[in-house]
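haha ok so turns out i had the wrong file open the whole time. this is the CORRECT one, sorry everyone. sequence first:
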Amino acid sequence: MQTYRSFREFYPYYLQEHKNRQCRLMHFIGTSLVLGIIIFTVFTQLWWTLLYVPLAGYGFAWVGHFFFEKNRPATFTYPWFSFLGDWVMYKDIWTGKLSLFK
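then structure:
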């Protein structure tokens, strides 16, 4: 099993684990919901709504992996790098560096 010492080494592996566009879409939806929940919470000050953050973030991502990508989420092996990878992939989708449709 490969051991990654830096996020720079890890990110190509992370992208390899997200080749399926439906999996990437599920990550994108989950991350968008996480941002929406955080914004909603800040404006309403209903702090209990933050309990939905892991459900939205991990729930959508894991559905993407188990049903579309058919692999084990990197979160189980590399939790911190995987967390960072999700946000970098989200940014890469928004900036057009990575496509949801290919």
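The chain has one domain: 19-94.
again sry for the mixup
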